[in-house]
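User: Can you predict the 3D structure for this chain?
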Amino acid sequence: MEKVEALDNWQDNDVFSDQERAVLEYAEAITFSDRQVTDELFDKLRTYFDEEAIIELTGLIGYQHMSNIFNISLQIPTQGLCPVNLKN
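Assistant: Here is the predicted structure, written as structure tokens:
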């Protein structure tokens, strides 16, 4: 639960490993329309994951994003499982 509660400030929180920070940066780059996945970010991911794992990670992030957009569009309320207020 400590990591969930720390997500608002993941960039500056020591509870996350460098690998986890790379994944969170990637998730934000995919999710927010004002960001891009750079070559530098891909190189960072390749430090921890092979190509197959990056593809799986991308699919999982994309699925979660799609589910979120689906729920928002249909005004389906959250279940309160994550107290994080994400800002873009």
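Residues 2-73 form a domain with the AhpD-like fold (CATH 1.20.1290.10). Residues 52 and 58 are 10 Å apart (CA to CA).
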